[in-house]
Design brief:
- With about 325 residues, the chain is mainly β.
- It has two domains: about 200 residues, Jelly Rolls; about 120 residues, Sandwich (Immunoglobulin-like), CATH 2.60.40.10.
- Strands 3-2-4-9-6-7 form a six-stranded antiparallel sheet.
- Strand 12 and strand 13 form a beta hairpin.
Length: about 325
């Protein structure tokens, strides 16, 4: 247990150093308008549903120390209770092996991070998830066990230490997919994919799971050995209480980082509003077309500018295929 305590302390210290490196005063918004910090290591975990586990001063010293990705039932190394009853016609069998688990950890937030937006992004959790930050509810995800999701935790943070508490419920819930039908596979619960802190300004590009038109979508309406045109659809959100007019600058870079096309357009957003802007590049002459023998990739960089200040920035890859197959790449 003493070794676990040392690892936990070291992990918290390393996270703090990572945040300071990403968000130090020497890094201006124009240089780094979006940062992502993975926080997979060093979570406190317990299998069960203890009362008051969401409170910041809850004593979790007896919990296990785990790193993500993590499956809380597999942790017990016993799948004998996952089979259910074969003679039951009702598909929503109460598998006794599917339970609730809690994850807790501390993050150290510098003052520079609180001037923008801070999101906690879960790439996957089985099956439903509730989050508390410093004892206050941040929200819940009831969409499904295979869906990425995020919480805006900006207003719940304070400078210095902040306590995260995550309740992951993997009991059978017939209204939440993948439940709702007889499954022929085991649904292990837990935080089974990456968890990241994402820092942006406002306006910012939305996350790709927020709707049918979200994030950045790339297509190639024209592509041949002679020329290629890249179309970029960018979904934006304004978190402020004032209308803003921003500029979206998109560059296409070749394999060595040389700019081969640039487009720049203005877009207006209402207070707390959303907008989707569609851009097209000028034709790129003699593009390097992708093939298995020559898997050439271009990079598309999208930067959101509010006046002279960059508030968000995304970098994505795109390939050119002469068959004109639709190519989409999304990144949060």
């Amino acid at each position: 247990m003493h070794a676990f305590s040392i690892n936990k302390t070291l992990g918290t210290a390393l996270l703090g150093l990572g945040l300071m490196a990403l968000l130090s005063p020497s890094v201006t918004a124009g240089e780094a308008p979006r940062n992502k910090l993975n926080i997979n290591p060093v979570w406190s975990f317990t299998l069960g549903d203890p009362a008051d586990a969401s409170k910041p001063d809850f004593d979790d010293r007896g919990w296990d120390i785990v790193s993500l990705p993590h499956s809380h039932e597999l942790y017990a190394a016993d799948i004998s209770n996952f089979r259910g009853k074969e003679d039951v016609k009702e598909p929503y069998v109460a598998f006794p092996g599917r339970k609730v688990g809690w994850y807790r950890r501390t993050i150290d937030i510098p003052a520079t991070a609180l001037s923008g937006k801070v999101f906690l992004v879960f790439q996957g959790a089985m099956e439903t998830t509730k989050l508390w930050v410093n004892g206050k509810p941040a929200g819940e995800c009831l969409v499904g066990g295979y869906t990425s999701f995020h919480f805006d935790i900006t207003s719940l943070l304070q400078q210095g230490k902040n306590r995260l508490a995550v309740r992951v419920d993997n009991t059978v819930q017939k209204d939440i997919p993948p439940d709702g039908a007889m499954c022929d596979f085991v649904l292990f619960g837990g935080l089974y994919r990456d968890v990241d802190l994402v820092f942006t300004g406002s306006p910012h590009v939305t996350f790709p799971w927020e709707g049918p038109q979200a994030g950045v979508r790339l297509t190639l309406p024209e592509v041949s050995q002679e020329k290629a045109v890249v179309q970029i659809e960018t979904a934006l959100h304004n978190d402020t209480s004032q209308a803003v007019k921003c500029t979206v600058v998109t560059r296409v870079l070749d394999k060595v980082g040389k700019t081969v096309a640039t487009t720049k357009d203005e877009v207006s957003l209402h207070a707390k509003g959303d907008a989707v802007i569609t851009q097209k590049t000028e034709p790129i002459s003699n593009p390097n077309l992708w093939s298995p023998d020559s898997p050439y990739l271009y990079t598309v960089e999208t930067t959101v500018m509010n006046g002279r200040k960059a508030t968000d920035h995304l970098s994505l890859s795109v390939e050119g295929r002469q068959s004109r197959d639709l190519q989409q790449r999304r990144e949060s």
